[in-house]
Amino acid sequence: MIIVIIGAQWGDEGKGKVVDLLADRFDIVSRYQGGHNAGHSVYVGDKAFVLRLLPSGIIHADKTCVLGNGMVIDPKAFFEEVDQIAEKGVEVSPERLKVSSRAHLIMPYHRALDHTSEERLGNEKIGTTLRGIGPAYEDKAGRRGIRVADALSPDVLKLRIERNLEEANRIIVLYGNQPLRADEIYAEISPLVERLRPFVCETSHFLAEARKQSKKILLEGAQATLLDVDHGTYPYVTSSNPTAGGASVGAGIPPHHITGVLGIVRTYATRVGEGPFPTEMLDAEEDIANLIRERGNEYGSVTRRPRRCGWFDAVATRYAAELNGFDSIALTKLDVLDELEEIKVGVGYEVNGKRVDTFPAVSSDLRQIKPVYETLPGWKSDTLGITRFDDLPENAKRYVRFLSEQVGVEIGLISTGPERDQTIILEDSVMEGWFSN
Ligand code: IMP
Questions:
Q1: Alpha-helix residue ranges (DSSP H) falling in 24-177
Q2: What are φ and ψ of residue 291, in 5° steps?
Q3: Separation of alpha carbons 168 and 166, rounded Å
Q4: 262 CA to middle of ligand 1, Å?
Q5: What is the pLDDT of residue 19?
Q6: What domains are there in the chain, each with its CATH number?
Q7: How does the average pLDDT of the chain come out, rounded?
Q8: Among residues 20, 36, 40, 114, which one is catalytic?
Q9: Which residues, in sequence order, are bridge partners of residue 287?
Q10: DSSP letter string over 67-85?
Q11: Which residue among 12, 128, 233, 363 is best mutated to probe the pocket of ligand 1, counting the most ligand atoms within 8 A of its Cβ?
């Protein structure tokens, strides 16, 4: 069984907890795109883990985790995370953590270029995580990137750093920043690459063999559908493909070997960074946005940036369901809405008085959109920790059913709090099948 799990909105849907829950049922958890721009918070007992680069499965001692070929890996960030987890008592050995030899490395000049590019864009900036993700993918597409396999050979690493830095420094200097030195970068990166060596693996072959042995594999998307470089709100996107098709390429798994796709959907929407956000709560709804931000802890788990908050956007989520082919949805953070009198759901879009039924490609169109809302009554009672659908307040059940109808996909799991056991699994759902398999 191979399941892909992807956020349906702009990220931060609470995927970390769901992957962590599902990890129990799987043997292997693999990421397939992105790098340490992600940030999952996972709580186990009194321990909080913030995972950026490593799959959430890493905190389960009996799981094997894979960083797939579609990823960009900052070796410094990799070991910071490995060491942080080891300090909390979870051993991370090469036996249970495999890094693709075909993944690309994020180098210090990528970080510098990310800063430069955002400065250059000024008002038009993307609002990236400044971790060098975009520039590393630019080098990959430009066929000058340094893959893990290349870096393992010291001469090649040295040469590529020198060659790439020559070009990078031109841009860095042009915008008034200090040039970087190739010898310093080599001195910093080369010991990290040596430490990485035992973790390096032909991961697509490893995954193919695992599948033959009937191992269960979870493919964990980072960022989310609307940040996909092809399908998201371009150019306000990340530089990789979180959508389900990206899982096949980024893990090296044939598409027809994928068994199912699970969408992670939150009961409301958020977005970090710039870019259009049709159902954003603007000034008049600032109090509600603040309430949600506080109750939902809607601050970047890595960057601590406050997230922009908005109502559930059914048009965008339908689009995500169509693109990814969701078989089931995990609906997260129901309890965050407990105190609201009324809850709005964006069920359609209007541009210049005309109804739009599909998700527009052009950012400026998306900015002009007036969402069409339906308002549902809130439930005004505590749902934190409820574990049975029947025990939810009537209006909460109604809200959940409404979202499912709007998106056209079953809701198989509802999260009612950050802890593992604060979860409802819906009977007879596709999701329940994955859990019981
Ligand atoms: P980058 O991935 O750092 O290049 O940033 C590009 C866009 O993706 C920015 O709007 C970021 O805020 C957003 N982004 C990147 N990673 C995440 C994530 O894990 N959650 C939410 N947004 C993200």
A1: 75-87, 108-121, 133-141, 148-151, 154-174
A2: -60, -45
A3: 6
A4: 21
A5: 87
A6: 1-100+202-437 (3.90.170.10), 104-196 (1.10.300.10)
A7: 94
A8: 40
A9: none
A10: E-TTBEE-HHHHHHHHHHH
A11: 128
Q: Is the pTM of this model over 0.85?
A: yes
pLDDT digits (tens, 9 = 90+) for 299-344: 987 678 899 999 999 999 999 999 999 999 999 999 999 999 999 9
Partnered with residue 67 across adjacent β-strands are: 31, 99
Q: What is the pLDDT of residues 362-397, one digit of tens each?
A: 777 778 889 999 999 999 999 999 999 999 999 999
Own/partner pairs for 355-362, CB < 8 Å, 24+ apart?
356/315, 357/315, 358/315, 358/319, 359/315, 359/316, 359/319, 361/234
Closest-CA residue to 38 (of 63, 64, 6): 6
Q: Which of 114, 122, 165 is nearest to 138 (CA)?
A: 114
d(CA 189, CA 185): 6
Tokens of 254: 């044939």
Q: Are 277 and 10 in contact (CB under 8 A)?
A: yes
Whether residue 83 lies in the annotated active site: no
R_g of the chain, CA atoms, integer Å: 22
Q: What is the residue whose two structure tokens read 């953070």?
A: 333
Active-site residue flag, 150: no
Tell whether ligand 1 has an atom less than 6 A from the beta carbon of residue 273.
yes
Say which DSSP state 268 is in.
S
